[in-house]
Amino acid sequence: MTPPPLAARTVLRTASLAVAMALLAPAAALAHFPFLTVETDGDAPTLRLTFGEGPEEDEPRYLPILQKGTVVRHTPDGAREALELTATGGALTADVSADPPGTVYTLSLPYGVMNREGEAFFLDYVAAAMKEAAPEDAGRPAALNTQSLAVVPEPGNKLKVIAAGVPVAGAEVNAYGDLGGEDYVADANGVVTLTAEEIEDAGRLIVRANVALPGVGEFDGQKYSEIRRYATAVFTPEDFQAAPAKEPAPEPAAAGEDKISVEAVPGADLPVGVTSLGAAVADGYLYYYGGHPGTPHKYSTDEQSGAFRRLKLDDPAAGWEELPGGPKLQGLALVPHPGGGVVRIGGFTARNSLEEEHDLHSMPTVAHYDPATGAWKDLPELPGGRSSFDAVTMNGRIYVLGGWMMAGDEGAAWHGTGLVADLTADPDSEDWGWKTLPTPPQPRRANSVAAVPEAGEEGRIYFIGGMLPEGEPTRRVDIYDVATRTWTRGPDLNGDVMDGFGSAAYAVDGAVYATTLTGLVQRLTPGADAWEDLGELEFPRFFHRLLPAPGENGEPTLLLLGGGSMEQGRFTAVERLGVGE
Q: Which CATH number is 276-511's, of 1.10.730.10, 2.40.37.10, 2.130.10.120, 2.120.10.80?
């Protein structure tokens, strides 16, 4: 079987956000990098920025390079501000004695466009350092989850490479200390495990990682076709903790022979591959809106979509019909309207150009596309901006779960509440608009949602997987009972920890189906205490959509739309997923 068609020049090579990057081999030992450290040897803690083979160097000739960078202070209360550093010898320094413990400092240093062997690439450096954490603090500082690339220590003598808070699988990392250095390859969770001796003998452990991102752009009048980003960090043995005791992971459901069939839908290829799109099936059509067709982890007005299209399910060969679009959005939801058409909910938009720093804002807007009029009509807005969530309709109501609210320089706030709106209510009545659900057990984003209706107006809503505020993916599943307005814990998704990130789900005939990052297709039937593994996709997707399709012989049939793969990139093919018994 040949791979489905891919969007032109959008191959993703990492394990995340709709997003996968491949790590280049670590740079040679004599290469120069920027290093950000907090030094405590003097009278006061001093933030120090240098450029060289290691953080101890301070050659004045490199000051013009360092002065191109921006250093931002992130205090534990969520505040952030740019710092002014002063040249001291060959280093840039700042007195940080007044900053509270746990303050994080980050560097963004766009070096410029380089030309090597006929290839032009944009060279970008990032670095991070932290002032000693308060004893009561635990876990990774939230500021590091917003960085385009970072290396962080984990309990159990581990290092983790993350991009926008998401682990980078297969990362190649170079770490060296007083007795020399080693190259490592991270596991599927972005983790490198060091020995206790390596940590103790390192003195100061200097770590580098680099990624290559496809993407055409221009910087200072020079064009490039690739971004190469390098991250550095410096640790001491005190930065590493013993691994916490863990309960043994539950055994996954017994695997049987594959019960799935997958085929591309002829004539249904997307015009361009997108991740984090909104999609729904309504009125015999497959609709989709927006998404991210651009460079992974890079968001701008140039690299988001506001396109709106539909495909007639009984005649897919007729191709996609262009419909009235709207604001450029990704991380949104699209659900059927009980009166016909679809409802567009939330998402985030970038207010920056490709060359500018990210200025990302989650939107509260909700609108109904009515095919009878061919136009959008505004509905009551969400109580606050929301993106990276999921939504579903059941019995005339929309349920919204998960997500966060990004507000540019003010940072992001995670949503701990779920919402419901009755689309059948009288617009002039008090029942119109958004109501708050009983609080879900655990905030998260990059989750999926499915609904299982029952007789009358009852049913259950499944809140599946996602990313926790601490920056870790989760396979957790929680179930909301509409009749009793209560939450119960459901069986975790099968697979490894990353299978909870960017999944897609839909319920058919009372069973919930989910497809995950590693390609697992699994089903949770009523009353079951574990998910059933049905098989694996040859071409896995994440940040995609799973939707119902006309079936044959009464068997459940679903559509896979959009999304990306760590190996294959963004998919343009729409695939039909059949499930047998």
A: 2.120.10.80
